[in-house]
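Appendix B, Record 12. Input sequence as logged:
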Amino acid sequence: MIQKKDKSQKVLFYFTIYTYLFFLFKVSYELLIDTIYSEVYIALFILLTTITLPLVYLIARKNFNLFEPIYSYIYFFTLAFVYTTFYVLEDTGSLFKSLNFDISDSTTPTVIYLISFSIICFYIGYMFSNILHKDKKFHYFNEVDIENFKSYIGIVSVLYLITILFRFYGYSNGFLGSTASETGIKPPNIPMISAFYFLSNNWYVFFTYFAVISFSSNKYFKIFMVVLALEFLFTMISGNRRFAITIILSYLASYWYIHRMFPWKKMLLPSVLILFVFLPISTVYGYFLANNIGVSVSFFDTVGYLYDSVFFLIESPNGKSIFDYVLFPIVQSFNLLWNTCVAYTQFYLNEIQIGAVGVKSFLGQLLPTILNPEKHTYSRQFLQMYGDYAYVVPREHSTLSINFLSEMIISYGVYGMFIGMFIIGFLMNFFYKIFNTKTTPPLFRIYFISNIVFFSYGLSGNWIGGDLILTYRLLIYFVILYAFYKILLIKNPEYKGGK
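Logged structural output:
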């Protein structure tokens, strides 16, 4: 592949510095006018300083790799706990009204300081892992790698087609999608249906595979564009905006691994479309779904809601859609400070600890559903329990998720935050190192890129019932498949690459 000098390192370095200086000015101004949130602003500045200083060092390294997962993790962490919180401080009246969270509470600065120490523990874990695995050298894709990937096109296409048919069937019949748990619609009695669920839940692996081979020829690029269109359609239908992040990061990581550069110009138009078309429409569409909780939503209902969403935005006052349907959903979806504050005030201060629920849930969900049909019930009770404490008025079915720091607090207390973040930092660098060497099997390279969201910002999720369980369960299955492949290769040396 043609290698060109990339400016990503310089862009990221100066973006980090200028953003830090901007918020330094912002905090200084707020302290001068002496607002009621002065202590919160000081705590946020300390948190931002704790995040930024090690990050600048990491960016400035000679072996810089834009898609080393620590970068996307740290920037998401900063967005979730610092940037969006500044917006919350500016507009406290319209956010989180239904939750037991008040940013002016005296415990908020304490929680932010605990988060600051947690991120230090994260960096220590990451650096420690880096020292242990310094012999692992990152390997970019070359033509030989791409040709090896293409040899799996047959089996991958068949499996991906199955996920497409199953998802269309599921969304059109109401047992898949964001409202499925509320409608009470049971999935059909299909033999081995858990296998279809498993394949469909890991759609991003197939997407990444087609993204990687799309750079080899125009034919594969056209195939990938079809796959891309389908996944954005499913993202819209499902009502899960975060799937869009998975799509974008997986594609960009694939591009980087091959071209060793970031497509700044090519991403300009898609970025505008996502921010000012996809995000507003998906947000309004989500409101329509929320207003129909408990009602079966067919595929044709979905099309109708999307149609109504477009016209709703067209008729909205100028300027309102930018803040209410772009900025607001980002803040609402990605701010995690409230989540951690709820865990601290409602659980830790009341001396409520649930123990190693995440570990038990993970071990239980390693088994296929056919062997452990009640595995989701176990985790669901604790997610509901968290919602009961978080909501001002408890709801029959909580839709709140728990972030990693919150899980550590309600499971082990504040010391769990520090130990947990050290482990997360260690594991993040460990997987980055072992899955990106020259000798890493193609299956695991695709696995890593497709799961780069979960190995980076996704690590802010929980182990009780979140997507992280799917990620590591898939890894274990991949290890088993690879072991069988190696046994087959030993017995049949002529067998290679599925040929």
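Residues 8-32 form the longest helix (25 residues).
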